[in-house]
Amino acid sequence: MDQSKLPEECASLAEVRAEIDRIDQSIIHAIGRRKHYVMAAAKFKTSAATVAAPERLAAMLETRRQWAKQEDLSPDVVEKLYHELVNYFTAEELAHWTKSSSPSS
Length: 105
Description:
The structure is a single chain. By secondary structure, this protein is an all-alpha fold. It has a single domain, classed as Chorismate mutase (Chorismate Mutase Domain, subunit A), CATH 1.20.59. 74% of the residues lie in helices and 0% in strands. Helix 1 runs parallel beside helix 4 and helix 3 packs antiparallel against helix 4 (75-101). The radius of gyration is 18 Å and the shape is elongated. 3% of the residues are buried.
């Protein structure tokens, strides 16, 4: 049962903060799920260069900028967030790819 409230339904700062915390927990959960897909992608990569996939990164960031505009958010801020997130995931994926593609694994 979803007990979330719309912003205009909140009767106190505590309720607003509780909703923000609930949303942030959901965002972090989604980032964790995203990581599992990033790790799954490693098995389809043929080299360290394909792990980084700079063309994919550029296209993905542009799409996130468009999505940010649709939500009335700063495209620059969203791009910066995703850039940091993707840098982290790329390092994780590269480590996973290197480990799983080494002859001793």
